[in-house]
Amino acid sequence: MTTTPGGRRRRNPSGARTGPPRWWTLLGGDRVAVCAAVVLTLVLLTALLGPLLIGDRAIRQDLDASLRPPSLDHGFFGLLGTDVLGRSVLARLIEAAGTTLSVAVPAVLCSLVVGSAVGMWAGYHGGRRESVAMRVADVILSFPSLLLAVVVLYVFEPSVANLVLILAIARVPIYLRTARAESAEIRSRLFVDAARTFGTRSGATIVRHILPIVLPTLLTVATLDFCFVMLTESSLSFLGIGIQPPEVSWGLMVAQGRQYLQTAWWIAVLPGVAIVMTTVSATILAAWARLATDPAQRWRLTLPRGRRRRPATTGEGTP
Amino acid sequence: MTDVSPPSDQPAPLLTATGLRKSFRVARNRTGNARLTALDGVDLRVERGRTLGLVGESGCGKSTLARVLLLLERPDEGTLRFDGIDPFTLRGRALRAWRRRVQMVFQDPFASLNARMTAAEIIAEPWRSHRDIAPEGARRDTRVRELLDLVGLRPGDAHRYPTEFSGGQRQRIGIARALALGPDLIVCDEPVSALDLSVQAQVLNLLADLQRELGVSYLFISHDLSVVRHVADRVSVMYLGRVVEHGPAEEVLDRPVHPYTSALVSSAPSLELTGDGRRRTVLQGEIPSPMDPPSGCRFRTRCPRATTVCAEAEPPPATRSGAPSGTGDHRGWCHHPLGPTPAPP
Amino acid sequence: MTPTTAPPARQPEPGAPPPALRVEGLTVDLTTPTGELRAVDGVGFSVHKGRTLALLGESGCGKSMTAQAVVGLLDPVARVTGGTAHVNGTEVLGLSRSQRARLAGPVLSIVFQDALTAMNPVRTVGAQLAEPFRIHRGLSRRAARERAVELMDGVGIPEPRARARSYPHQFSGGMRQRLLIAMAVALEPDVLIADEPTTALDVTVQAQVMELLADLQARQGMALVLITHDLAVVAEHADEVAVMYAGHVVETGPVTEVFTHPRHPYTRGLLDSVPERAAKGRPLHAVPGSPPELGSIPTGCVFQSRCPLAADVCAAERPRPRPTGPSRAAACHRSEELASD
Description:
The complex is a heterotrimer.
Chain A: E1 10-11, E2 17-18, H1 23-28, H2 31-54, H3 89-125, H4 127-142, H5 145-155, H6 160-187, H7 190-197, H8 202-238, H9 250-257, H10 265-292
Antiparallel strand pairs in A: 1-2
Helix pairs in contact in A: 2-3, 2-10, 3-4, 3-6, 3-8, 4-6, 5-6, 6-8, 7-8, 8-9, 8-10, 9-10
Chain B: E1 15-27, E2 33-46, E3 51-55, H1 62-69, E4 77-82, H2 92-99, E5 102-105, H3 119-128, H4 137-150, H5 167-179, E6 185-189, H6 197-214, E7 217-222, H7 225-231, E8 234-239, E9 242-248, H8 249-254, H9 259-267, H10 308-312, E10 317-318, E11 331-333
Parallel strand pairs in B: 3-7, 3-8, 5-6, 6-7
Antiparallel strand pairs in B: 1-2, 1-4, 8-9, 9-11, 10-11
Helix pairs in contact in B: 3-5, 5-6
Chain C: E1 21-32, E2 35-47, E3 52-56, H1 63-71, E4 78-87, E5 90-91, H2 97-103, E6 108-111, H3 125-136, H4 141-154, H5 160-163, H6 173-185, E7 191-195, H7 203-220, E8 223-228, H8 231-237, E9 240-245, E10 248-254, H9 255-260, H10 265-272, H11 312-316, E11 322-325, E12 328-330, H12 335-340
Parallel strand pairs in C: 3-8, 3-9, 6-7, 7-8
Antiparallel strand pairs in C: 1-2, 1-4, 4-5, 9-10, 10-12, 11-12
C-alpha cells in the first residue's frame, strides 16, 4: 500500500525531491510510531507465544503468596505481584493477552468489514438503499447493546464465538455510519464522476476510488473501538456471561480486581494499563498509517514530528 | 462566412439533442419541495470533427447538459441521437460499449484525478471497464506512453502522482485519460479556466492538434468568450436552462441577435485598450433563481429591451433583421432581436 | 538566493504628493520541510492616491503573498525578511500587531477573493458590517447598524435595511462580493488591496463588481492595488501594472505602454497567449514550459528556461530592473531587443 515498485521520485509541494519513500524509512523517521509498533508487536508475540512459556502459572494457586505486591524478591513471575489466590499477575496478564485479543480482534474486524462494506455501498448509491441501511443501523444503535448481549448470551452458551458475534453486531453501525457519510461525500467528487463517464461499474468504483480514501478513517475508528470492545467484553465477563473462569482476559482481571482496589491496586490497575497501552499504540499506528497511505501527505512523515501539523504553503490561494 | 454552409449540405451531425428537459427536486425552507428546472427544452447539434462552444453563466444549465450527454443524468423529456443511436435505449453491455464514445475533460484538474493513483494508472483506468478494447500486457504500457506522448508529457511521468504535476500537466493527464478509449466526442467542461494564461494556450493548442489528428469532436463549455471564439466553429448561448441563441461562432459573437449574447460580449473584459474604457452595457441584476424562472422570455428581468410582450409570450426564433444572406442557421429566440449595427472593429 | 535590490523607486515629479503605498525590496521567506524558500524576492511598486496599480501574475508568482505581507496577514510559515512598505509615509512592515490593527480599516484594507469564507456564516451581514464602526469609531450598536445599512446601500444592495438581517449564505456570489467590498471600504481607507476580487464571479457580475470598485475609488479617492491574473481586467481597469513572475517583479509601467510595447519577454509571452489576439484556427502563441518551483529557481534570470531570447548572460546574472522608458522598468538583459521589434 505504501510503496510502489520502481525508483519513483516524488516531489513534495515545496518542490524539493526526496528518494522513494519505503514504509520502513517513513516509520523509522517517526519515533513515536516506532514505539507504538514495538508495543503492538510485543503484545501480539505475548498473545501467541506467552502461554507456552508460563505453563500453568496463570491458574496455579498458592494461598501463602496471596496479595503480594509487585517486587523483585519473588522471581520473574512475582515481578508484578499476585492476586488474592496467590496466582502470578504477570502470568495471568500473559495468559489473558491471548484471550483478550482473540475476542477483540475478530469482533472489531467483523464489524469493520461488514459495516464498511454496507456503509460504502449505501453511501455510494444513496436513495432507498441508503435509507434502509441507515434505519437498520439506527435500530441496532437504539438497542442497548449490553442488554442485547445479556439476553443472547443467557439464551445461548456464553462462548468466545458468541461473544465475538454479539460484540461485532453491536459495533457495526459505527462503521456503517462513518463509511456511508464519507462515501456519500466522495461520490460527489469529480474523479468518481470521471470513472462513471468511462463506464466503471459501481463495485469497481467503490473498491478503486472510495475504499482507499475511507479506509484510513475507518481504521482510526476501529482502533478506538478496539478499546471499547475490550471493555465491553470485560463487563460481560464481570456479569458472568463473557469469558468464563478459569479462562482470563484483561477485562475480566480488571473486573475481578476491582474489589481489591484499595488494598491491592496492582490486580486491577496492571491489566488496565495493558489495555490502555495496546489501544494507544494502535491509535498512534493508525494515525501514522493514515498519513503513510496518502501520497499527497506522505512527505510530511519525512519531517520532524513537531512541524507536521501545518502544511507549508508555497503558492498562494489563487487558482 | 463562406465556410458555413446550410446544414443540409453537411453529413449528418454526430450528436443531436432535441427538447431536452431536466428538473431536480430540491428541498426548500418553508414551502416544502420545489423543482429546479436545469434544462428547459434544449436543442443542440455537434458536427463531426468540429467544436461546438457552449456559453453561459453559472446556473444556466450547461453542466447539467454535459451530464446528460454523458448519460450521467437521464433527461425528463427530449431525445438524444448520437450517430443515429438513442443511447438512452441501450442497456447493459451495449450501454457500456457506447460509453466509450463520449468522454469528458473536467474543469478542475485537481479534483478530477484520484490523488492515490499514478498517472499511468489514471490513464489506464478506463480500460479496466472496457476489457474488449483494452491493450494487454506490454502493449498496455506502450499505449500509455503513446498517450502521454500525444498530450505532451514524458514517459517518465507515468509513475508520478497527480500532486507532483502542475495544473496544466494534470489537465494533460485528464485529456490523455479521455483519449484512452478513442472517443468520438469529448465534452470539455471549462477545461482551461483553472489554468494560468501561459499554460492555457498550451492546452488549447493541444486540443486543436488532437482534433486535427484524431478527428474528434468537442463540446466546449466555457464562460470565456475569447477562448470560445478561438476554438469553436459554432456557438450555443444558454440562459436559465434554455438556448437563447446559436449559430456560427463569429456570427454569434460579432453580430448577436439576442440582447443577452450582446451583453455577455460587452461585459467580457478585453485587452483592446481604447483610452478610458470601451462603451459597455453592464447588465443589471443577476440570474433569477431557476426554481422560479420568469414567465415568457427568461431574460426579460435583466433585458434593456424588454416590453410587456416579453412577459406574456415565449420568444419566437428570430434572425438578425436585415442580416446578409449566407449567415447559415444563426438564430436567436427574442421578441426584439438586435438589428444591424455598424460592423465592429 | 542572491541578494537583490528593489527596483529604483520611481521619482515622483517635483511637488507631487508621495505615493499612498510604496513597497520597496519586499522579501518573503517560507519555512518548508526542505528549508527556507524565497517566495517574494525584492518586490517594489508604488501607487498614488486615486490611481490603480495591477499586480499581474500567474498562480504561485507571489502576488497574493506580497499583498498579505503588506497587510500583515501572512501565513505563519511565511515571514517578511526584508524590505519596507510605506503607507502614507508610515512604515508598516515593522509595526506590532496592535499598531497594525489600528491601521486595518481606516488606512489600509483588503478585499479577498472568496467572499463566502471571508465572512462569518453565523452572524448577520448587518452585524458584520457594523463591526468596523464599533471598533474604530466607537459608535453605539444602533448608530453602527445605521452606518452598515448606508454602506450596503452604497454598494448597490437592494433593500439594504431588510437584507442587513440576512446571513452571508443567503446572498448570491456577486452580492457577497459587494458586501465584502463594503466591509473593506467602510472606514474609507487610503489604500485598498483587492485580491482577485472577481475571479469567482460570472462575467456579467464581474463587470458589475469592477464598476463598483471604480466607482468607490472615484468617490473616496483611494489608491487601489488590484491583484489579478486576468490581463483583460488589467487592461480595462488599471493605470499602472507590475508584472510578477516567480517572486520577482519583471516589468512595471503604465498599462497602455506595457501592454502595447512589452519590454520583458514574459510580458510579451503572456500578451501573445491571449486567445483574443490570435487568428482563429491558428495555434496560440503559448509560453513553453511552466513556472519554476520555488525550490528550483535558477540563478540568473528567473524566466530564462522559458525565454526565447535567453543568452549566456541570462544564466549568469540576475537582471536588475532598469528603466526602459519614462516611468517604466523591466528586469531583462535583452529588453532592448524587444524594443526594436
